[in-house]
Amino acid sequence: MLKKEVKKIDILSLAIGAIIGTGAFILPGTMFLKAGMINSIIAILMGGFIMIGIEKNYGYLLHKFPVAGGEYAFTYDAFGWKHALTCGWFLTLAYSSLVPFNATGLAFVAKFIMPGVLKIGYLYTIVGSSIYLGEIGIAIFALCFFAYLNIKGVKLASNFQNIMVFLLVGIVFLFLSLTIAKAGINNSYTSTFFVGQNIEVSKILKVLSIAPMLFVGFDCIPQVAEELNFEAKEASRLAIFSILIGSLIYCSILFFTSFGITLEEVTNGDIVWATGHTVEYYFGKIGLWSLALALLTAIIAGINGFYMAASRLLFAMSRGKILPEFFGELDPQYHTPKNAILFILGISLIAPWFGRNVLGWIVGTSSVGASIGYLYTSLSSYRLYKKEYNKVYFPSIFGSIAGVIFLVLLLVPGLDSSLSMPSAIIVLVWGLIGLFFYKFYDLKVVHYTKEELDLLILNRNLKEK
Asked: Whole-angstrom Cα distance, residue 90 to residue 129?
């Protein structure tokens, strides 16, 4: 059994740290401001509102099933193990891909606070990214360190997460306040993003389509449900609060970034890191280093949070006999899913060798995986609520429609929001691997009765007691 060591503050920092990753500091210059200040803020706030609606389904189901696995466990009870495998498989893609994505952000930070330090040992260039041994080395170190931290125990990992998230939130709001105080809201830079800018539905939808990736993190909470040392229903309130904080942080970083860069500079791509440029413009190198610290905390919190979520998901799927028993083995001393953590480490160690541009493809793939998880959770909520109370649960209808819309925006070719070709290929290949696994792997789940699987996946005997 997993230890019940996760406190309320741990859950809150887990969710916020997973929501606010590298993208919050980079996307303002590469996507948000290009789509338009107002368009992006509308999309972010809409995304937060939609996620709160979806979370209500998580809250209902988490109260029923406070076990590791979250969406996987919900889907199993509502639709059976085949659908649970599909849901868990694509959620694994969403969570595990964001571990190396955040880790490679460390080289991005170093580029601005220690220019050239990591550019040693040039190896090759791939898709426009020059690969250096120094940059790979720091990513590998981070991946190994946080794997070790998570194996040592959820309490140690959570305490570290709490410190990182406290620094992250504090620095972001400090910069927002200082920048407004120094430049004023009606400054010459910010005005370029308002004057003559129209609200465009296509641009709003483009930003909204990645909302599953932007807010993926609140759904990490169900993955550690078995380790909560408080009532599961309290976790739902904390999840909603984390979404609100996440929305506020995204909008805050986007807003103060516009204080030192023009629309023309954003459109032309003249500046590598727009947010860093603005902070350095007003506060010099000390400000830039402080912002880099905030980005560093976001990166660390993201790596740590998704290690925790992905490993618990793999552990739960193994315990349900869908994945090999290897993933379900716990460390004898720390009672953590050691093998699952080491597996995530292993696949994450491949990613840094392909460069940051290639890793950018997983932004879309992560959104697809998260959207599938949201859709399955909402559908499960609908079926189980109807079965229990013989009436319709409105959030399940809302969440199901939202999940379908997200998948349409991402998967229908020709839309501004649709996946890039490389991202689409990754999703397709991942799906085919899952299909191959289902067809040819000797799934032990077929040898168990429903009562036995209910005990393994849902821990129903504890509920009955």
From this structure: 27
* Spatial distance between the Cα atoms of 242 and 18, rounded to a whole number of angstroms: 10
**In the chain, where the domains are located:** 8-464
What are 47-77's pLDDT values in tens digits? Answer: 999 999 999 999 999 988 888 888 999 999 9
pLDDT band at 442 (very low <50, low <70, confident <90, very high): low
Count Cβ atoms below 10 Å from residue 40 Cβ, excluding itself: 26
Most confident segment among 114-118, 219-223, 391-395: 391-395
Reported for 445-454, long-range contacts at CB under 8 A and 24+ positions apart, including other chains, are 445/81, 445/320, 445/321, 445/322, 447/321, 448/321, 453/76, 453/81, 453/320, 453/321, 454/77
Which among 42, 425, 14, 382 is positioned nearest to 211, based on CA atoms? Answer: 42
Interatomic CA distance for residues 86 and 112, integer angstroms: 41
- Has residue 438 got a pLDDT over 70? yes
Contact at 8 Å (CB) between 362 and 96? no
CA distance 1 to 386: 32
What pLDDT does residue 463 have?
A: 43
CATH topology of domain 8-464: Amino acid/polyamine transporter I (1.20.1740)
Query: At which residue do the structure tokens 């799934």 appear?
Result: 443
Separation CA 22–CA 39 (nearest Å): 21
pTM: 0.88
